[in-house]
Amino acid sequence: MEEKDLDLTCGLTDDELIERFKESIRVDNEFRTILGLPIAKFDPDSNKAYLEYPNGKKEYVDDPHRAFKTDDYSLTVDKSGDKDSLKHILMNELLRCFLESRRGYAFVADNSRVNLDSKLFYISLVLYNIQLRCFVLISIRTTRCTEEDYSLMNSCVRYFDERRKRDCENPTMGITICCYGGKTTVRYVISDSEKPFASSDQGSVLFSVEELKALVDVIRLHNRK
Prior knowledge:
CATH class of the domain at 76-225: Alpha Beta
Largest sheet: 5 strands, mixed
Helix content: 25-40%
Shape: globular
Oligomer: single chain
CATH topology of the domain at 76-225: Trna Endonuclease, Chain: A, domain 1
Radius of gyration: 19 Å
Structural class: alpha+beta
Number of strands: 8
């Protein structure tokens, strides 16, 4: 890696990036162990990937991607406490879609609490896009959305830019998904920033409004009671 390219990785060398990657895998494995979930491993002797369960059982898989599926992500229950609520179902399914899209999305948090002017606001999903080097905030609403809801997302985006974003990262993006009365609306927002954010990768990385609407409609149809 040339010195001029270091700004693309926040000034980290290849060795530092590798160590950070190893540490992220270690933390993720600890998290999965606590939850009683299997850990994906690779057997060099058989040249196959396998899932190792907490009881020691090993399940070999022909497709290596299956060992890293995200179907078993278990998100925090929303404030209603109903795991079967439409909002919770949308959170789980949209998270799976983002992570399995191979567009560089990584899971950061769910139901993330933000204190805005002494008022608490919960962000449904917080993701990070490695290719675009920016946080992506997703607010899922199952009630009628108002301009105040969209304004709150603007405030959350500014909050992340001021307190979480590093100088070498791009401005935070926000997505508000409103699913109410049989209609789905999606609105993107990006913070005002002096740093321009124009990337040729955006078109292939970001989900379009039409794609997100279609995903939500399919999830709703599939889980209709």
